[in-house]
Amino acid sequence: MLIVMRHRPTTERVDPPPETHSFRITDLDEARAFCAEFYYEVHLDLLDQARPLAFEADLARLGAITVGDIRFGADVAIGAEVIDAYHVNLPIAGAIGSEHRGAVTIASPRRAAVFRPGTGASTRRWAADCRSLNIRLDRAVLEAELATLLGRPVRGPIRFGASFDTTRGAGLTWARMVNLLRSEIANPHSALLQPLVAERYTQGLLGGLLFAVDHQYADALTAHAPPARPRTVRRAIQVMEADPTHRFTTAELARIAGVSARALQEGFRRHVGLAPMAYLQQVRMGYARDELRHPMPGRDTVAAIANAWGFGHLGRFAAAYRERYGESPSATLRGR
């Protein structure tokens, strides 16, 4: 029998918060330094000496993913001898012709270019009026996400196709997700820049790209995933109930249960009727209700208890609580 100790959460390790930056640069060396810090060591040269550099970049870095809205304001040539991550160029205006792995790919607002780690890439002409989202995705993290979705190890690099359509299907969805982050860079209070939300949003971007671009594992990803057997669902439930304050993700629970994330989700849908994260929320709400019914005088408030169990938005907590228990949290706290 699993014995569950109900306890108030303790302080956990806090991941570094997402970073946002804005740059306005007119010096070539400074622009090269920017690229080296946030992307790769590059060769960067002006193609028209009569038109000075007017580099602009609005950038967000969420853990394994860096998204930069970049304009050079002058015609430049740019190239990297080695790219150590997966990379996507998604122009907002203009087009970029790049050479990578012996082939030339034209990226435009309708089609994104994809680069694989281990080799270089070059753009002979990035026009002054071109503006592009440059997305860098950590190799190890993206490959780990693929392994989690497949439920088995991934050997070697992901052999992405050179480009993908951003006007329809999964490619359009992914482009919209990236553009949402771009639009939120200047919003200091954006939910996407809150660490807990950013973690899940990043995971969505990683998984979304794996469904948007053709690669050697694409058929396996889209194949039907058999539901997790009840014992694997029970294993995930036991882990959540034993440590309800832990910041679980579906991917982490799937690894613990020994199945793919899709299989775990399907298993929960079939055998529990809730998604794993929805089940975890109900577990936490049950513990919050216990504390509301037996508060410590002079210390416990609805807000303090809700926050302690991971409910950061008091209004949403109260609405969900009332829907589940038929009374408000404050009514439970007052003993009514």
UniProtKB/TrEMBL annotation:
<dbReference type="InterPro" id="IPR018060">
    <property type="entry name" value="HTH_AraC"/>
</dbReference>
<feature type="domain" description="HTH araC/xylS-type">
    <location>
        <begin position="234"/>
        <end position="335"/>
    </location>
</feature>
<keyword id="KW-0804">Transcription</keyword>
<dbReference type="InterPro" id="IPR009057">
    <property type="entry name" value="Homeodomain-like_sf"/>
</dbReference>
<protein>
    <recommendedName>
        <fullName>HTH araC/xylS-type domain-containing protein</fullName>
    </recommendedName>
</protein>
<dbReference type="InterPro" id="IPR050204">
    <property type="entry name" value="AraC_XylS_family_regulators"/>
</dbReference>
<keyword id="KW-0238">DNA-binding</keyword>
<keyword id="KW-0805">Transcription regulation</keyword>
<dbReference type="Pfam" id="PF14525">
    <property type="entry name" value="AraC_binding_2"/>
</dbReference>
<dbReference type="InterPro" id="IPR035418">
    <property type="entry name" value="AraC-bd_2"/>
</dbReference>
<dbReference type="InterPro" id="IPR018062">
    <property type="entry name" value="HTH_AraC-typ_CS"/>
</dbReference>
<dbReference type="Pfam" id="PF12833">
    <property type="entry name" value="HTH_18"/>
</dbReference>
